[in-house]
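User
Please review the sequence:
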Amino acid sequence: MTLTSQTKFSPGRIVVTPAALSMLSGDDIRSALSRHLSGDWGDLGKTDREENQESLAHGRRLLSVYHNSDGIQFWIITEADRSVTNVYLPDHLHGRDMANGHGALANTSRKANHYSPRPAAAPSGLTFRFRLQ
């Protein structure tokens, strides 16, 4: 995937959980990542879109919600420090895919967005690396 000048932020390390890899095509993931990085937040409501715009301006976590052609919902979250972007299925949020190694999720710092659990980078899965030009 080539990033263009439309990219609004760096994704950092991109991690796709095993559950997402098993349910989504590479094209689904690439398309959604491109949309996320360009500021198209997918299927978020007005309040969450506004929160993302504020988060983009102030260096906070960014969330996007997408659906593939089969109707499977998946989330993309870029951490506030832009070190990692996670792609995962929300149904698998409480499973080992997004656990911090102890079966519990880390705390979230984002208040207004109810879609904002703070996932840790999955230890396995597909990793993309990008360079902004």
Summary: Helices lie at 18-23, 26-37, 46-58. The chain has one domain: 13-128.
